[in-house]
Fold:
Amino acid sequence: MNLVSTMVGLSIMGAAAPSMMTMSIAPFEAQKRAQNLGVAESAAVTYAAQNEGADTLSAWPNGCTVDSTNTPAHTISCSHGENAYEQTIERSFRTAVPLTDSNTITFPMDPPESYTQWNCPGKDNILNWPVDPWGTSYYNQQTLGGQYCIPEAAQGGIDPDDDMSTWLWDLRVHFGG
Structure:
């Protein structure tokens, strides 16, 4: 009986050995992948942090590529490791937007000739009307009969550092700035 038990035990061990071997090296493989991910991650994050808001891009680290097709937004992709242990990471960042001459800014709409004394309904509207910060959705036509309310961006004065890319027309024409 001992011989049969030994033979059965050895055959089970022989059949299970490949999976036992894979299980025994799995933690080491995971550790190697984690190390490679850490190297790639630190290269990508460091480069993105150093170039965030910069005027020009610096040289990127070995194993990394930079995609600048959507300037001023960029994506750096860094890889580290070989074969099955290679790990790749991507990080996005944005460089400085070049300042433009205020005369070259284009707006979707031309400014009106004049405004009424009414403010366009904004987010602080007590009557809980729909928000129409420029009056173009409904307020100017339905409430003011085609005249123009004072846009929310001009209420309380215009900040010269305001981001004019969100404006529908140039408010400086009537409100200074």
